Amino acid sequence: MVATSFETGSxxxxxxxxxxxxxxxxxxxxxRRNAWSVALYYWNQGSDVEPNHLPxxxxxxxxxxxxxVSFTVMEEAVKLLNQLELDPEKWRDIPPPNTEGxxxxxxxxxxxxxxxxxxxxALPSVDQYLYYLARWIAERIxxxxxxxxxxxxxxxAAIYPKDLQAQxxxxxxxxxxxxxxxxxxxxxxxxxxxxxxxxKWTEACFQVSVSFFRGKTDNPxxxxxxxxxxxxxxxxxxxxxxxEGSLDSVVTHCHLxxxxxxxxxxxxxxxxxxxxxxxxxxxxNVGSYTLVAAQAVGSEGKVVAFEPTQACVEILxxxxxxxxxxQVTVIPCALDxxxxxxxxxxxxxxxxxxxxxxxxxxxxxxxxxxxVTLDEWWRSLECPSVDMIKVDVFTDSFDVIRGGxxxxxxCSPIIQVEAKGDLxxxxxxxxxxxxxxxYTFFAYNPALNELSMARKQARNLSTVNLVAVPEARYVNLKxxxxxxxxxxxxxxxxxxxxxxxxxxxxxxx
Length: 509
Fold this sequence. Notes:
Serine Threonine Protein Phosphatase 5, Tetratricopeptide repeat, 20 helices, globular
């Protein structure tokens, strides 16, 4: 109805970018979502007026992902990438990205990589857009180490070899698949390192990969040189974090490739926890959540980390001591619905270690570990207040939660559990049990810092866990602008935004 007043996609693109700037400072998730919804409307208009305006097309895809309103967003993104690859002449004269009218609504965010000042000077503009789109897809189409993501990381690495993270993801992935080409990528990264921190990271990637390769190969010359690395140190969340020195560990692989733990919900932990709170980390491994939580709760708070794998326990304790975090207590036990001894099956990847109820069908050696219940631990400390519990165990979370019924009823903590299946729901037992205790399940959207009803949100690949919230915690979450009634995703532009759209457009006229 107003599109005739705007004849270029660039005008609409700028309007959308202005809304994203508003969203960045909005105090509540509802206002952030509204701003993104208006931006989506503008980018849709820009794409209608100028169908080949790449920033409008790319920003539209990103806003669909942020809002969670399309199940086909990845299909559309891959289709556009193919068009850029196969028909670049269509965009031969397009200005470079992030110039006036051609801004993109997201940035490449990597702890080890930043676009250099000379980025793009030797590249055609269309290749720059292709690079941004390939990175965007790679980071969202699947978990970083899964095969679906690798072709897009390789495109990014090929277009811009100075992208050290893309080179590392490809190199680590190939090395883990025992393809020696991966070592070549990582050696190139070492040669490009420009700072002490980047050199340390590139050396860690290279050393762990070479050690892994030697440990897995049947080549007599290499196997005779086996010198496995026990631990490797990397920077993480203003700390130094020790990791298991093997690519068998998904935790190690993730931190080397991404510089952080891949789960989006860890951003919720950082956002929700406050100084003085108590956080329980069930299945802590070497401390990805533990270190983040310790920083959030401060010296006045408490972090209790339960981990039954002895090798991880030693590294976890080392991480707490090395970073001077006395608020962290490490308990080398498994959590279950009852206490006692348990069979414990270890695998090459410590994240897959698990308690087993029976030895029937088990062919690998097992150990025994001590198991306790959350309630027993809680009562032994005279029932302290607990604000949040993260449960990440290879088997179902139900037995852990069932063993903490008294604690849960008394403290009403927020509980993070793994999402199951394609729809991203909790297991039937966990869902039923916590629902009876007054909990509602939410999915966390890191782009909006928002909790929305899990079943009403389009399944987002970044949703690895669900956040179960009791009614007693609603007030604080609403006050912080994270939880809003009625802020659920919609495939249509919210009718309440129509007057805002008219006002903004009329101002431009």
